[in-house]
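User: Here's a chain of 341 residues. Predict its fold as tokens.
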Amino acid sequence: KAHYPAEYMAALLTSISTNLDKVAFYLEECRRMGLKVLPPDVNESRDTFTVVGQGIRFGLAAIKQVGEGAVASIIQARKQGGRFTSLLDFCTRVDSRQVNRRVIENLIRGGAFSSLNLSRAQLLHSLEYCLEVAQRVHRQQNSAQLSLFDLEPAAALIDPTDQPVPELPEFPFRQILEMEKEALGLYISGHPLQEYTEQLRRANIPTIMELHQLADGQRVQAGGIITNIKRTQTRKKETMAYLTLEDTTGSIEVVVFPQTYRRYMAVINPQTVLQVNGRLSIQEDTRRIMAEKLAILPDREHPELKVYIRVPGRINDRSWIDKISSILEQYPGPNRVYLIF
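Assistant: Prediction complete.
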């Protein structure tokens, strides 16, 4: 780790590649050490984590839906014909039985075509055309006889410069991160929580990995993004929820019992960044937070919303306060309410 940090960390990541929480933790360690973490790439990646310059490149096998056969086909085509120069070039050279539409879509979402200098939006938009041309090329190559309609030269069909590239804006950065999360199970280009890191540090909120150092029953705080929500009914037909809270170091389950759920259900939504207060529960090495309080962390794009209620004139009867209080208790939420006299 001291003398060959990239090689060491690449080997370590390969050894624990099936445990996404550990992968996320050690990727964060790579960044702390100054090592670049690079997404998978059809022109550079092998099947596992490899060293590229001063960085570590994800392997193609890390992408969901991309099996051993697809990885072998991509590497074999690259060995035989050199680097892929376009999406069309890629589609016509790989084995379409192994590298089908779903595989290519996940390769695009995971950032594996970044070396082609095209955006994910452009690649996904061009995919239909490239697959159609590739199908004709493969059919022509596999046919022993050519019909009069198939006399078009193969070179014209596989000319990589023949691919039309639409002028499309790239997807928003948050959407790109979600694509990576869907394809890889991890965020690579960044993390939705990065802009909150300083805010969490100032509030002395530990990382999720640091919670592993605490004891059962301790009061804890955690900050992260909700990546999964599972709602269920208790025997009393009350709703409760199990949340997966994730930060840059890992994830943890948050249990929200019915009383807490009723109070904070307005803030329990996918991709919401929350601060959670509660107690740590450890059972058979599984850590969970039993939530007592939830709060949205405001960011620059979504500042804290405030509700203002203007009170007209002079009111001697104070019963209106009880009415407003009753309404606010019936519809709880994360926003502050101000009365203006």
